[in-house]
Backbone:
């Protein structure tokens, strides 16, 4: 008997987006009946790769073979027809439809081509749910009424409702309790016993040890290791492969810390907590200091930042600026006290895309240019221009629509807004997301210069080197808890990744 | 029965000759200023072009009736009431909302201001009551939407129903005749200033104030911000809810002013006043270039939109075309305007 060809082979997959090369020649080989784990840091290209596999993205270059035959995954439907199903991290269910309707959405069993055979759909759905270990889920219930864990089961039932040979699971355990994770693993075991292959994405190394057969590690859009044995490869080696960069980031020099030691903290966070998002966190920020929060997506980084800013209401704890506590859950109180936020989703949360640079910069400071509500547009424009010039925003045109700027310059427009406001604490959430590598060094220099001028900066980034290179002090988060606090110079990327993935508390 | 037929036949060939200029002016005016990147101005210029074409059509089909001073005064007067409502509506839509209750608020304000008890207080009593009733209804809308977190569509739909009901309750379905002479005088030719009716002056004043609010004040800037990106506005420290409240108050006040104008015009208050004003105002704002999703729009565009609609209605009436034809034409114009809007937006993004 000739050796069976691999179920799926992807070779030299390349995919570029404006400004980013997300995949740079990735290889992946998946065998029938195996659990193949995909590892990599945020931005390593995992999401793009599984979207290519699901037919949602078209690769610029590279070849895909399926059971020995070259194929093109030209659309999600094409991928589904071959037997590739994807369960995304954000569940893609229709909340207003029933469980059975969701399972068969787009391929309902029909009579005469258009009459849905409801009863058949329900019985088939019930059988699938039973196979997944959840016979208690009623196929007639609305998906919106189910718990997150049950919704995930429905998602899986939908995947299995096709004649599936490969299931991609994107961090399926992220939203689950430990015993639900056990059930998930039972399901995965059952699938592989039937010869179905599973591509499993998770940040939790212990899960990969438990159910993984082989591991592919991605870094900066490349596969640095293909098909390693999941059980025997030392953790050290895996982490080492995920870390280290080809692109050298240039970070500005840190000033001597001596001057800051005597100063009073400008921002103090005392026991701040939000149930289910992060546990009580204490934090002090000196003028001129940059403090970084490192952690994975879902570790509570952004939630902490937004709670400090008042955009989320804390369940306990308080935020003090210059020793004065702020009204909890009020953005306006935070802004009035001198806190500014550059949010993670710049376009959705910070910018008026069709409006001019001037109007975007002045939006938080309007009353300063107004008398009795009447705007002095000359003063507004001049002040906004001073701020954007200080950050060398390009193009130097106050009337340019923000939409036309590059990512880096859009971020500068947001920073200019708070510079103009004269804020004293700057909260930065993923400040270089969507910013070209070349423009990042410039942003780093701007952030450090603002700190040198006395601003206190709280920085969140999923890029560990960025946190380590830019911050003075680093708090490492894992699942909503600060597991380590240290001077940035005492940490390296390897150590931080160990902490965020294994979470051995040392502090 | 015989008259409409010949006039309709009569119109056929002349409409044909008019299509030449129809195509020409907008394209000519569209090409020039676009080079300066002033898209809102291009839109407004093309609306002016449409008005010019309409004037030509009116002048050709009914030269004597259309160009008569009295008719031009009539067009402007008829534009005034709905125009004032549209200015308020435009600000609400730019702020990311919608106000379906404007017609009902006009009705309620007009009947409350013309009850016998109110008329006892004379001119000031009527004006004051109309504005206060509009303000109060706007306050209810604003509080429900801004602080009760209701969807604007639903909250103002509820106001539409209840304000109409209350207006019917007050009047018992009867027309309330106004006997205050100083109010009625404002509708008579003797009160015209340099040939311009006072109502038109009022409309012009509201337009100027609306333009100043939108373009020269922090209020206007914040309106654009909450309509363009409410989350970004909130995170920038703007009090989004208070801003929303103010916008519905403003729309209510505009309806109060419009109700007072309607009282002058009709010499009465009726619970059927302002019927379908919400649709007319929204339509005028949309063909004036206001984005229904908020964040973009101009007062000038909306006012031109109102003038276009009123002029079309006028020309159709002069040509003895029934209101069914008018309605069809209105619908066609809205579709054409929105298609043009999509095209300009798309052109701007590339």
Residues:
């Amino acid at each position: 008997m000739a050796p069976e060809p691999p179920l799926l082979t992807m070779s030299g997959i390349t995919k570029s987006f404006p400004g980013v090369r997300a995949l740079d020649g990735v290889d992946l080989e998946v065998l029938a009946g195996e659990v193949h784990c995909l590892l990599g840091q945020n931005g390593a290209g995992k999401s793009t790769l599984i979207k290519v596999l699901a037919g949602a993205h078209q690769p610029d270059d590279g070849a895909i073979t399926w059971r020995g035959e070259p194929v093109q995954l030209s659309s999600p439907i094409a991928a589904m027809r071959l037997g590739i199903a994807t369960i995304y991290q954000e569940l893609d269910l229709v909340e207003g439809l029933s469980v059975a309707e969701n399972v068969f959405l787009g391929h309902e069993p029909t009579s005469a081509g258009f009459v849905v055979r409801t009863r058949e759909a329900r019985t088939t759905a019930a059988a699938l749910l039973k196979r997944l270990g959840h016979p208690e889920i009623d196929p007639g219930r609305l998906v919106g009424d189910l718990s997150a864990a049950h919704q995930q089961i429905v998602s899986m039932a939908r995947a299995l409702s096709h004649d599936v040979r490969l299931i991609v699971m994107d961090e399926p355990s992220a939203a689950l309790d430990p015993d639900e994770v056990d059930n998930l693993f039972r399901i995965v075991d059952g699938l592989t016993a039937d010869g179905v292959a599973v591509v499993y994405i998770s940040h939790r190394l212990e899960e990969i040890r438990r159910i993984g057969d082989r591991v592919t590690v991605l870094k900066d859009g490349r596969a640095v290791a293909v098909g390693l044995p999941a059980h025997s490869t030392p953790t050290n080696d895996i982490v080492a492969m995920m870390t280290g960069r080809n692109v050298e980031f240039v970070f500005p020099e840190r000033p001597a810390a001596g001057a800051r030691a005597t100063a009073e903290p400008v921002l103090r966070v005392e026991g701040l907590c939000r149930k289910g998002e992060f546990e009580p966190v204490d934090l002090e920020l000196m003028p001129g200091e940059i403090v970084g929060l490192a952690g994975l997506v879902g570790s509570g980084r952004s939630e902490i930042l937004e709670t400090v800013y008042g955009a989320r209401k804390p369940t306990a704890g308080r935020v003090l600026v210059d020793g004065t506590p702020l009204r909890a859950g009020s953005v306006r109180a935070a802004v009035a006290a001198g806190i500014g936020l550059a949010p993670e989703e710049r376009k959705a949360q910070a910018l008026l895309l069709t409006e001019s640079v001037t109007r975007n910069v002045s939006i938080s400071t309007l009353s300063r240019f107004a008398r009795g509500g009447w705007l002095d547009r000359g003063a507004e424009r001049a002040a906004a221009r001073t701020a954007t010039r200080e950050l060398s925003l390009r193009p130097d045109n106050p009337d340019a629509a923000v939409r036309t700027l590059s990512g880096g310059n859009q971020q500068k427009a947001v920073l200019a807004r708070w510079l103009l406001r004269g804020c004293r604490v700057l909260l930065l959430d993923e400040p270089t997301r969507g910013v070209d590598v070349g423009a990042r060094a410039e942003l780093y220099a701007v952030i450090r210069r603002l700190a040198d001028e006395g601003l206190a900066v709280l920085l969140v980034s999923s890029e560990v080197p960025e946190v380590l290179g830019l911050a003075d002090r680093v708090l490492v988060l894992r699942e909503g808890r600060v597991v380590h606090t240290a001077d940035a110079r005492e940490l390296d990327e390897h150590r931080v990744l160990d902490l965020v993935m294994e979470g051995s508390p040392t502090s | 029965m015989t008259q409409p037929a010949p006039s309709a036949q009569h119109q056929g060939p002349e409409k044909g000759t008019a299509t030449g200029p129809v195509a020409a002016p907008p394209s000519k005016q569209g090409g020039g200023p676009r080079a300066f990147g002033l898209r809102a101005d291009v839109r407004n210029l093309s609306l002016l072009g449409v008005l010019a074409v309409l004037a030509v059509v009116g002048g050709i089909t009914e030269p004597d009736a259309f160009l008569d001073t009295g008719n031009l005064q009539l067009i402007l007067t008829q534009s005034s009431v709905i125009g004032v409502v549209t200015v308020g509506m435009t600000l609400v839509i730019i702020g990311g909302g919608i106000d379906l209750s404007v017609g009902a608020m006009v009705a309620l304000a007009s009947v409350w201001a013309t009850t016998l008890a109110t008329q006892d207080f004379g001119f000031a009593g009527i004006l004051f009551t109309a504005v206060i009733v509009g303000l109060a209804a706007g306050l209810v809308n604003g509080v429900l939407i801004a602080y009760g977190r209701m969807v604007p569509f639903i909250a103002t739909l509820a106001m539409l129903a209840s304000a109409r009901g209350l207006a019917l309750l007050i009047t018992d379905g009867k027309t309330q005749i106004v006997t205050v002479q100083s109010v009625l005088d404002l509708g008579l030719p003797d009160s015209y200033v340099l040939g311009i009716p006072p109502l038109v002056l009022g409309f012009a004043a509201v337009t100027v104030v609306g333009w100043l609010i939108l373009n020269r004040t922090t209020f206007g800037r914040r309106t654009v911000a909450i309509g363009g990106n409410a989350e970004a506005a909130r995170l920038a420290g703007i009090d989004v809810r208070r801003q929303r409240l103010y916008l519905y108050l403003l729309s209510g006040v505009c309806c109060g002013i419009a109700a007072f104008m309607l009282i002058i015009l009709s010499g009465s208050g009726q619970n059927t006043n302002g019927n379908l004003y919400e649709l007319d105002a929204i339509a005028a704002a949309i063909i004036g270039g206001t984005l229904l999703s908020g964040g973009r729009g101009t007062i000038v565009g909306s006012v031109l939109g109102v003038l276009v609609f009123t002029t079309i209605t006028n020309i159709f009436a002069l040509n003895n075309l029934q209101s069914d034809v008018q309605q069809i034409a209105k619908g066609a114009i809205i579709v054409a305007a929105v298609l043009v809007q999509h095209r300009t937006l798309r052109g701007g993004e590339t």
The radius of gyration of chain B is 21 Å.
